[in-house]
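[Discussion] Sanity-checking designs against the backbone

I'm trying to build intuition for which residues belong where. Below is a structure token string of 108 positions. I'd appreciate it if someone posts a full sequence so I can compare it with mine line by line.
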């Protein structure tokens, strides 16, 4: 898990649950919501810049993640871009982009 915050006060986190023993147990939505709460409320982060929005992406093929983001997190799909990045094997991947702003997070 990691994150960066851009000049426009958008946080760009990343996460991945690699171990199959921890997949399909409901941990993903809980971890993501905890991370988002942290990014919106942490005093150290927000003393430097107020996090107004969180944006991230996933692979087009990752339908399970898309379901979680749209139905459990309440995120908005903001776009799809072909050949957005190369994976570890050198294959170009299509990315699906998501956003959730502070108001949407607290009103979901």
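Best answer:
Here's mine. Compare freely.
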């Amino acid at each position: 898990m990691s994150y960066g915050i851009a000049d426009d006060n958008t946080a760009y986190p990343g996460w991945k649950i690699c171990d199959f023993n921890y997949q399909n147990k409901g941990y993903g939505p809980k971890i993501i919501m905890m991370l988002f709460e942290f990014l919106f409320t942490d005093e150290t982060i927000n003393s430097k810049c107020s996090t107004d929005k969180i944006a991230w992406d996933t692979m087009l093929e990752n339908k399970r993640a898309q379901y979680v983001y749209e139905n459990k997190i309440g995120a908005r799909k903001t776009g799809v871009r072909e050949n957005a990045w190369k994976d570890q094997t050198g294959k170009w991947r299509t990315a699906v982009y998501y956003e959730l702003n502070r108001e949407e997070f607290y009103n979901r």
